[in-house]
Structure formats: C-alpha cells, structure tokens
Amino acid sequence: MKIKPKKSLGQNFLIDKNIISFIVDAGNIKKDDTLIEVGPGTGNLTKEIVSRKFKKLILIEKDKNLSIELKKKFDDKIELINNDILEVDEKKLSKDQMIIFGNLPYNISTQILAKWIKLKDLNLICKKLILMFQKEVADRIIAEHGSKDYGRLSILSSWKMNIKKIKDISPNSFFPSPKIKSTILLMEPKTDFFEIKDPKNLEYITNVFFNQKRKMIKKPLNFIFKNAKHIEVKLGLNLNDRPQNLSPLTYYKICREYENLLN
Prior knowledge:
The protein is of the alpha/beta class and about 260 residues long.
C-alpha cells in the first residue's frame, strides 16, 4: 500500500539514511531503555531503532493507515498507539524513564513541546528527547535573552529543559521536501528547576510581556501588579528594559510574585 503524506497532519517523512542513523545514535540507546517514537510515519526512523538493542519501543501515530502499515512491518518488535500525541497520557505509557524520538508535525510541534514541559514529573517520566523542529522554531526554543528570536517559547523551554542543538537538516532529507530547513534538538529534563505552582501562570506572564515586546516593561508590570514599584525594587528591574532583555530566571521570579498574589 503506497502511503501519501497528508498535508493536514503536517507529514514530511524523513528519508535520508545518514540523518536517520545520526538521530538514533544521538539517543545513545541502552538495552534496558524504553523508547517512544512520536509520528513514525512510514517507519524509516523506526527501522533504524529496531536494529538496536532496547527494552521496549512504543510508536504513537495518529494516521490510521500508517498505523496499520507500521504494525504489519514491525509486528511484535513494537507497541503501537493509534492516537493524537496531544491526547496521550505519557505517565501511563511506562513506569520506566523514557527516551522520546520525534520528527514532530510542523503544525503542532510547539503545542506538543509545551505539553511535555508542563508535565508535573517530567524528569521522572523522561530521560531525554531527540526532537526535530522547523529551524525557525528551534531557533526560538534555544534563543538567549537579548536576541531577536528570544520570547515565550525560549522561556518556557529553558524552565525545565537543558537543550542542545545537534544538527540542521536540509529539506532534501524529507519527502515531500519542505520549503524550510529543520533542526534536531537534544533535550534533557532538569532535575532541579525553579518552582512554579502552575505553568499556566508562566504562560500568562510571558504572554502579557511579549504581547508588546517592543514596549518597555513598565506597562506589563503595571498591568499585572497593583504595587509594581515593590516588584521593581525587589527584583532589581529596570523599567526601561524591553521584554527580550529579561532573563528566563527573571520571568520565573516575576511569575512567583504573581502566584503569591493569588494565594
């Protein structure tokens, strides 16, 4: 059965064998590892993974036709979940720490990442993630404060993850070829991170600040806090700064002050 990529699902199948081997090598898989592959598509990456030694491999594929073909192709070497990754409860997949591989659908890649970051016990659920993004999205994820790409995604990502760029990938490595480059990121959940009661509060804070990212921070600070002067002094803020000038840690501290008001 010939499978055609579905544009509606953001499908671009990875076909470059060298890149496939590179990605699997980056996972540094051990024989007692439990692995997850999100969006395996036609199983090109899966084929390389199953050539290694591991404890268990779970594939999560939303496309029903692809799921049927993957089950035929890999049979008892895999467990297969035919569902949208956004609907899957990762905590129920395994009691082991998992390694997650994913050539994430371009149209929902940031939603998937945000979902994982907001998991309560991410560092217990997941050992590491080797993920493929559009290059422009990856640039936003790893951006340092003060740079043009820095923003909400950078702050949320660095809250719970140590992130390293591994490689940029040419469009020719995919079928169909996307119009833009992709980037592979290696992410390792932090065991020690800034305590925030509810990630939605961090999303709210960064949304208020970056809604007008060219404006000085005085306006969003006054919008969030009645006693903005107290927060300014306590956190050593410069009201002439713009949102991109504040470090992730500063946003986490602002979020904590906001959460203290909610109690």
